[in-house]
Write a structure and sequence with these properties.
Elements lengths: L2 H20 L2 H56 L3 H75 L2 H30 L2 H27 L9 H30 L1
Length: 259
Amino acid sequence: MGLWARIKRIFRAGTGAALDKVENPEMVLQQTIRDMRDRVPELNNSVAQVMATERLLAKNRENLETQVVDLDSKIKASVKMGRDDIATAYIGQLSQAQLDLERTGAQLEHAANASKQALKARDNYVLNMKKRSAEAMQLISASKQAKLQEQLAQTMETFNIGDDASTFNEMREKIDRRVAAAEAKLQLGASSVDTQMQDIEREAMDIQLQDKLLEYKQQMGLLGKGSDTSGKQISAASEVKDEAEVLDQVLLNEANEQK
């Protein structure tokens, strides 16, 4: 194969592929239907011309028939009047009229057949056009349905369940890590020095309130003289001292850990 033939083949292949991509079946079918419908007026004009020729020939035949009858009457009248010369002239005209009538009759017969064939061809074309139009509409509907199915398939591909599941798993892991970190921080905050100091202060406040309560009871004579109020106060003071020592020990431990 020559170089030029190969170049032409490549060009034709590329052109065909480009046309296949650009060509829209729906638009092509719709244009085909429009073209078929546009041919109907032209076909009607052609049929009308054939029928007009037939009617013109029919009119000519009627005129020739009338002329033949008239010439025959004139010939008979001339013979009766003894005018053979005039009768001879009319006979010549009658012969020509009869010849024209015979020729016109043959032409009229052909024109009538042509009109019938033209009408039949027009009717067949219209019937075929309607059939093709209905078939084209079905193909267009099928093409639209196929396009919708393709769009639906593409949409379903974009909403892949596997991708969503992986996203949910990833987000669940992040949230679990965040919850665990928050719980750890909360636990550390609950065991911090500030919390322990608040507990000690609350315990000291309770001891002071108990001492006040004992004083009120003693003033009201609800307690005996040998009550152990002083002993309780001493024990409470010792407990506060012990708690203070514990607090100092906790602060010392945390300072060592920070170092």
